[in-house]
Design a protein that fits this description.
133 residues, mainly alpha, 4 helices, 0% strand, elongated
């Protein structure tokens, strides 16, 4: 994680690959997304934007006070969870059609993006360990 540009050179293709694989799974299992409250594409834009913001904030905090990176990540992730719940509420209250797949889709997307953010933060935190050896 030497600089932000190299990080995003890996992150952007990873996000695109994740989206393509997700769309392939929907196509393969013939899952229709027209009845979803939010299209998968909209959710990818929202979660990608949120993840990029989280990573940029973590990188900025790393520059100012490296020892606060872990705590900042936890706080930012908590805020993101609240934001995600606000987005999820219409899906939870939807009663017109079975929406188990839509709920699962939202949860899986949230977990995938959280995993990406966590891996990036772990790599940032490991930089200090590598630099001290």
């Amino acid at each position: 994680m030497k600089d932000k540009k190299s990080l995003f050179l890996y992150l952007i293709p990873l996000l695109i690959l994740t989206c393509v694989v997700h769309q392939f799974v929907f196509y393969f299992f013939k899952i229709k997304t027209e009845s979803f409250y939010y299209s998968p594409e909209i959710l990818y834009v929202l979660f990608s934007t949120a993840s990029i913001i989280v990573i940029l904030i973590v990188l900025k905090i790393k520059e100012k006070n490296f020892d606060s990176v872990g705590m900042a990540f936890l706080v930012i992730t908590s805020v993101k969870m609240v934001f995600s719940y606000v987005i999820l509420r219409p899906i939870l209250s939807k009663t017109m059609a079975p929406n188990g797949i839509e709920k699962t889709n939202f949860f899986v997307m949230f977990v995938v993006f959280l995993a990406i953010e966590t891996v990036v933060t772990i790599r940032i935190l490991n930089e200090k360990h590598k630099n001290t050896n």
